Amino acid sequence: MAGKSRVANGPSPRGEMQIRQRICAEAARIMSAEGVRDFHTAKRKAALRLNIPNARHLPSNEEVEAALRDYLQLFHAQRLSTTLQHLRHIALEAMRFFRAFDPRLVGPVLSGTVTAQSVIQLHVCADTPEEIGLLLAEHRIPYEESDRRLRYGGERQQSCPIYRFTVDAATIELYVLNRQSIREAPLSPVDGKPMKRASIKELSALLHPADAPISGE
User: Which CATH architecture fits 77-207?
Assistant: First the structure.
């Protein structure tokens, strides 16, 4: 009877852990090989491919990011290092170009968990988004516009204009925040904590170990 009850109520705690680990591993592979950036999408795809549709077994974003980091180190360690340095150098040049807008690097290029499809994400501060568009147009840099909702503490959400363009085969996304919003980092989609952000000086330190290490905000 005990065995039948356990089957009826779902897998054991150990079985649930194994399911989470399988979904983590497959989601990490999907993010690396297929360029999927959204954690939730990667987890859903992984569950479907593994024929595990039960949503309660989905791992957290933190678990998937850890699995992705392990996957990249195991299968793409040399390329990971080269890609990361390349993207960080481009990010630094872009930040210098947008120096007047107090740029901050965020996301995978800062954390170091990058794939070949990773984009450079920068937070910039402007009185109006049009300032960024005008600067890009002035330098004849083709771009696309979109927006995304960012989450803040206290369940607050705010729509953020985004300018997307390409430099040296790398995609850059500029999240345009106003002068009030730039003081407070949005919440990370990975762990729900305020995003880690790096200034020009802090990114330079990452690229040149002899300099002071990144201190965060």
Answer: 2-Layer Sandwich (3.30)
What the block records as the tokens of 189 is 């989609």
Q: Which of 26-40, 67-81, 127-141, 200-214 has the lowest mean pLDDT?
A: 200-214
Position of tokens 């989905």? 58
More confident site: 83 or 35: 83
Q: Are 122 and 98 in contact (CB under 8 A)?
A: yes
**Residue 202, both tokens:** 């802090």
CB proximity list for 118: less than 8 A, separation 6 or greater: 37, 83, 87, 107, 108, 109
User: At which residue do the structure tokens 């950036």 appear?
Assistant: 37
**Residue 213: predicted pLDDT:** 45
Tokens of 110: 């800062």
Average pLDDT over residues 74-78: 79
Residue with tokens 């990010």: 91
Pair 122, 94: CB distance under 8 Å: yes
Q: Is there a contact between 27 and 42 (Cβ–Cβ < 8 Å)? A: yes
- pLDDT, residue 217, reads 45
pLDDT at 83 exceeding the cut of 80: yes
- Where does CATH 3.30.460.10 sit in the chain? 77-207
d(CA 170, CA 181): 27
Report which residue type is found at 176: V
> What is the mean predicted confidence (pLDDT) over 46-65?
83
Contact by Cβ (8 Å): 105, 95 = yes
